[in-house]
């Protein structure tokens, strides 16, 4: 993959992967851990017990990427909002940037990532911490007026299923900001032209360059958003200068400023390794029930009652635990 691609590929190494594939021999450090109760559920990339925030961001010279993403979010976020769902929140790197929203629900499949976010951001009524599966979001319909999913889609084996779930829990007019890894980036185009890679950056299908690490074609992402019920409003190209030599030679603030100047070209072409999109939820959305916030991921029933040790489902009887202030909706069985 070269310089740009490898920055994405490291994200699933050293972390456990849950699901039906890949085989353990395909993973450098990962481990097949278990499967969802639903045998048809797609595989899930699990960052449990990883120190992703420190190892990937704080100790790996990615201040430029972080700064460029902060600029993109400032451009795309609405000024005000009520309730935001942050999907793949990890340890809460981006959460402080959502100042316009009154309340934020941080969601990640890894319980330990949620624990790190809780330790970083604290406990308050503004933040709700949820460990859950993006394919089975544990929220009632039409609940959120905003959602973000940054540096997550490249771990999603079935993007249309995930996007449909996100649209389900959003109200009409809600704003969804999505970042994805772009297979049609300039580096991949040059490598393909020089016959240094087999796959074409111009075809619509995703490329899985290491297990559970995907690059996507921008046209495919646009189509999936439309099919899920989102109207694309804006695209930004991000991380134009994700090259080690430039990051070592130029001050970070210069690179961020240059990236900021180039980001608006994303409405015309997408040749960077990272693309940010802003979409609006369109079509009818049922109003959320007044007496429920969560719903059972197994049967879809609202969960109106909360006890000190969990949320019991009145329909299927399953009790979803609350672990030190974190709602745990992960539906797992032993491998």
Descriptive notes:
With 335 residues, this protein is of the alpha/beta class. It has a domain at 2-6 and 61-288: 3-Layer(aba) Sandwich (Rossmann fold), CATH 3.40.50. 26% of the residues lie in helices and 26% in strands. It has 9 helices and 18 strands. The strands form 5 sheets. Strands 11-12-8-7-4-5-6-17-16-15 form a 10-stranded mixed beta sheet, with helices on both faces. The protein has a two-stranded antiparallel ribbon with strand order 1-3. Strands 2-18 form a two-stranded antiparallel ribbon. Helix 5 links the parallel strand 7 and strand 8. The longest helix is centred in the N-terminal third of the chain and has 14 residues, at 63-76. The radius of gyration is 19 Å and the shape is globular.
Write the layout of secondary structure elements.
Layout: H1 2-9, E1 17-18, E2 34-36, E3 44-45, H2 52-58, H3 63-76, E4 81-87, E5 101-108, H4 111-121, E6 127-131, E7 144-149, H5 159-168, E8 170-181, H6 186-193, E9 207-210, E10 213-215, H7 218-228, E11 230-238, H8 244-249, H9 252-262, E12 274-281, E13 294-295, E14 302-303, E15 310-312, E16 319-323, E17 326-328, E18 332-334
Parallel strand pairs: 4-5, 4-7, 5-6, 6-17, 7-8
Antiparallel strand pairs: 1-3, 2-18, 8-12, 9-10, 11-12, 13-14, 15-16, 16-17
Helix pairs in contact: 3-9, 5-7
């Amino acid at each position: 993959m070269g310089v740009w691609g490898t920055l994405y590929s490291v994200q699933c190494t050293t972390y456990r992967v849950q699901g039906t594939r890949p085989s353990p021999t395909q993973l450098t450090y990962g481990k097949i851990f278990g499967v969802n109760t639903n045998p048809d559920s797609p595989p899930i990339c699990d960052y449990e017990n990883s120190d992703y925030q420190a190892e990937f961001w704080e100790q790996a010279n990615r201040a430029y990427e972080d700064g460029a993403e902060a600029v993109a979010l400032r451009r795309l976020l609405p000024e005000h909002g009520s309730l935001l769902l942050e999907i793949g929140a990890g340890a809460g790197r981006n959460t402080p940037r959502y100042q316009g929203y009154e309340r934020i629900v941080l969601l990640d499949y890894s319980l330990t990532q949620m624990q790190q976010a809780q330790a970083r951001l604290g406990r308050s009524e503004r933040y709700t911490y949820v460990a859950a599966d993006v394919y089975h979001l544990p929220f009632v319909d039409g609940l959120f007026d905003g959602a973000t999913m940054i540096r997550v889609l490249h771990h999603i084996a079935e993007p249309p299923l995930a996007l449909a779930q996100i649209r389900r829990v959003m109200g009409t007019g809600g704003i969804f900001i999505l970042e994805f890894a772009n297979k049609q980036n300039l580096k991949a185009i040059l490598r393909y032209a020089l016959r240094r890679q087999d796959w074409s950056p111009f075809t619509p299908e995703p490329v899985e360059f290491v297990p559970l690490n995907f690059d996507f074609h921008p046209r495919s992402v646009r189509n999936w958003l439309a099919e899920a019920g989102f109207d694309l409003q804006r695209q930004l190209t991000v991380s134009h200068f994700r090259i080690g030599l430039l990051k070592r030679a130029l001050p970070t603030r210069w690179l961020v400023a240059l990236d900021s100047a180039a980001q608006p070209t994303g409405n015309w072409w997408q040749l960077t390794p990272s693309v940010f999109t802003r979409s609006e939820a369109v079509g009818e959305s049922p109003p959320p029930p007044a007496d429920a916030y969560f719903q059972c991921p197994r049967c879809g029933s609202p969960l109106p009652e909360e006890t000190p040790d969990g949320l019991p489902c009145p329909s299927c009887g399953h009790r979803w635990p609350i672990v030190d202030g974190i709602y745990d909706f992960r539906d797992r069985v032993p491998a």
